[in-house]
Design a protein that fits this description.
By secondary structure, this protein is α/β, with parallel strands linked by helices. It folds into two domains: 4-350, Glycosidases (TIM Barrel, Alpha-Beta Barrel); 356-443, Sandwich (Immunoglobulin-like), CATH 2.60.40.1180. It is 26% helix and 23% strand. The strands form six sheets. Strands 1-2-5-8-11-12-13-14 form an eight-stranded parallel beta barrel. Strands 15-16-17-22-19-20 form a six-stranded antiparallel β-sheet. A two-stranded antiparallel sheet has the order 3-4. α2 (22-36) packs parallel to α3, α5 packs across α6 (229-240) and α7 (252-263) crosses α10. The longest helix has 18 residues, at 167-184. The protein is elongated.
Length: 444
């Protein structure tokens, strides 16, 4: 499936001193990300935002067709850069074999040009949009409540919500998706806040027969449905019921288990492996992740030993997503070492194929086998949650008379290279991980 990079975090242009230069910053890193094994880039919202309190991250859409070309909302470029710089980024990504995912904010708009009275409610709201691109102008009829629907699934930040049942709005959203794929060059979509509108919109965007480079193109899709696993899967299954191009969902329940692993003393690995998650229930529909831009408020970010969480998602099933701030700002990439995210991305791409088998599980030790598939021969993963000593166990693997070498490892207290291991004629072998750490073994 590959490995996704979320190429932003909240207020990243300001924090990194790259305001209006973020596209260029990403572009410079593309060759190195491709070399490490990443296969896709999830970009922040590319359209011109309302920018009511200064430059914003784009989750307050104003002009969907202004990618940094028109002088409106305080600048010509978006906070990330110009349309030309975005095009250069996408072209560079494609040259290096990376797909590019657009962040689709379809629930709400902000920054209207004037207020209007909604005759249904008699209340005045900011709903008149006349963007300089000249595309997708909106008035009160484009928003809730409209002549087409009175019930709004969920609102976001008191911004006016688009009425997707209005045929004009629905058609414009489909046209926007087509433009982003066929003209701008994106390969897929991340759907923001899908709780706010009907799943049929996502189904239609996923199902459309896009033309790209003279051939039909199926966009990749992943939805942000922030809820427990059962509710998330209900939404996923509704969106995919009559969908030949299924959409995935971010695994928020697994992420909370990973936070427990990293931040809670005495956390049981049994809860991590057997706890509720989309990965456990329906791995083919999950994008796993450790951190994202929304987990920034006090108490939400993981603050300890985050590489334990990355070792888990980059050895297991699902489509793993790495957070830019972890990789660059917190220096968890650890390039050219076996101890960081780069080594784990390499493990994912080279070895992590096939079904998962739990070979050993206790409160503080977990040993897992990927059986191999195609050109990925499989691996042995050991996670040790004991803080003071190396731990290992004898386990029964699928490989007989085989020799294994460590290909990635890390520990909070001991970065020593794990000893190479072997299995006997019955497939039995012993595998270890350092204290409060992990080790990944692959066939020599």
């Amino acid at each position: 499936m590959g490995v996704m990079m979320q190429t932003f975090y909240w207020d990243c242009p300001r924090v990194d001193g790259k305001e209006f230069q973020w596209w260029n910053y990403i572009n410079r890193e593309i060759p190195y990300l491709a070399k490490a094994g990443f296969t896709s880039l999830w970009l922040p919202p590319v359209h011109k935002a309302a920018n009511l309190g200064g430059p914003s991250m784009g989750y307050d859409p104003y002009d969907f067709y202004d990618l940094g070309e028109f002088d409106q909302k305080g600048s010509v470029p978006t906070w990330f850069g110009t349309r030309s710089e975005l095009s250069q980024l996408i072209e560079s990504a494609h040259r290096h074999g990376l797909s590019v995912i657009a962040d689709m904010v379809l629930n709400h708009n902000s920054g209207a040009d004037a207020q209007e009275v909604n005759p249904i409610t008699g209340h005045s709201r900011w709903t008149l949009f006349n963007p300089k691109s000249g595309k997708f102008p909106r008035n009160w009829e484009s928003f809730h409540p409209s002549m087409y629907e009175s019930w709004d699934e969920m609102t976001f930040g008191d911004m006016p919500d688009l009425s997707h049942r209005n045929p004009y709005v629905y058609a414009e959203l489909l046209s926007l998706a087509r433009w982003l794929i066929e003209e701008v060059g994106f390969d897929g979509f991340r759907y923001d806040f899908v709780k706010g509108y009907g799943a049929n919109t996502i189904t239609a965007i996923q199902e459309y027969r896009y033309m790209k480079n003279g051939a039909y193109h199926k966009p990749y899709g992943v939805a942000e449905y922030w809820d427990n696993a059962a509710n998330t899967l209900n939404w996923v299954n509704a969106a995919n019921f009559s969908n030949a191009n299924p959409v995935d969902a971010f695994d928020f329940p697994l992420r909370e288990l990973l936070k427990g692993l990293c931040d809670s003393y005495g956390f049981s690995l049994k809860n991590l492996v057997n706890g509720e998650s989309i990965l456990k229930a329906q791995p083919q529909s999950t994008v796993t992740f450790v951190e994202n831009h929304d987990l920034r408020d006090e108490g939400r970010p993981i603050t300890n030993d985050k590489l334990l969480a990355y070792s888990y998602i980059l050895t297991h099933e699902g489509y793993p997503c790495v957070f830019w701030k972890d990789y660059f700002n917190y220096n968890l990439a650890l390039r050219d070492t076996p101890n960081g995210i780069d080594a784990l991305v390499g493990v994912h791409e080279k070895y992590a194929g096939g079904d998962i088998s739990t070979l050993y599980l206790s409160d503080d030790l977990y040993i897992m086998q990927r059986g191999g598939y195609g050109n990925q021969p499989g691996l042995i993963y050991v996670l040790n949650n004991h803080g003071e000593r190396w731990q290992g166990e004898w386990v029964n693997t699928r490989w007989t008379n085989a020799s294994f070498q460590p290909v990635a490892w890390w520990s909070k207290n001991d970065l020593s290279r794990p000893v190479e291991q072997s299995t006997s004629s019955d497939g039995r072998g012993q595998f270890f991980a350092p204290p409060r750490g992990y080790a990944v073994y692959a066939l020599k």
